[in-house]
Amino acid sequence: MFIGHFGTGLAAKKLDKKISLGTLFLAAQFIDLLCPVFLLLGIEHVKIEPGNTAFTPLDFVSYPYTHSFLGVLVWSVLFGFVYFLYKKNIKSSLLLAAIVMSHWILDLITHRPDLPVLPGSDLKVGLGLWNSVILTIIIEGSIFAAGSYLYLSVTKSGSKKGRYGIWALLIFLGVIYFVNIFGSPPPSETAIAIAGLFMWLFVFWGYWIDRNREALIQM
Length: 219
Ligand SMILES: [Zn+2]
Hints:
Layout: H1 3-12, H2 21-28, H3 30-40, E1 45-48, E2 58-62, H4 64-67, H5 69-87, H6 90-110, E3 115-116, E4 124-125, H7 133-154, E5 155-157, H8 160-182, H9 189-197, H10 200-211, E6 213-215
Antiparallel strand pairs: 1-2, 3-4, 5-6
């Protein structure tokens, strides 16, 4: 899943307006932001195999540290703990830990059974939504649309930057999504990793947008 994770980050603003959109994106995409680093270090591996599922040509051969259930659980506790050290807010820290974990749940729905339960174990899970392009687009698109709506409904733009910044980000994510689906497969594992590193851009973009929008006070 790709834009669905951003949908989770956007939606979470409704639950806790103190957390910056940048931090929410960082949590929702955390393991996908780490994964390219592990690929470049040769610790995890992805192969390109057109038709692996209907939706993606990527074959996730080995990603136990970033995408096993136990691995993600550890990252989510660490993420919440580090946030707590900085902000001393237990509620926000728990929410962020849950958002990191939500990535695995959404991946569980979308991936074919390639997600290890424990690092090194042969038990791999995945419900295989990616076997249908149209169902993936409908379900992932709905999560993204709902998240966008919730974020826009609980914040208002403090300036033109805040108004156009968020729309530019949402449209850009949508465009990348469809280019990924209908474009040609990436040429190599390194190309996948480098494209993955560019996803950090959305974290910084999220921080910038958050500074240019105000959270609405709700009764
Ligand atoms: Zn993932």
